[in-house]
What we know:
The chain is mainly α. Helices cover 57% and strands 0% of the residues.
Amino acid sequence: MNSKDQQSDETSDSVGDPFAEMRALLAYAGIRPPDDDLGSLARLHPGLLRRVERMHSIDTGDEVQAAVFRADEHSAGGC
């Protein structure tokens, strides 16, 4: 079985299982994290996906969208 077939099998087996979905997504990119990291990513992924979808749903007309990460702890509203 070539790697593309294996990736397709991993993706089809993962539907509905967040842990397996994250494993398949990362495997497609060639990333194989340890299971504890994979579990953390699987728990965080739905919230991150909702945030990205929310950003994409904003009608900005002709304006260019850009996400900005600020490492300064005070820039995130004092969190």
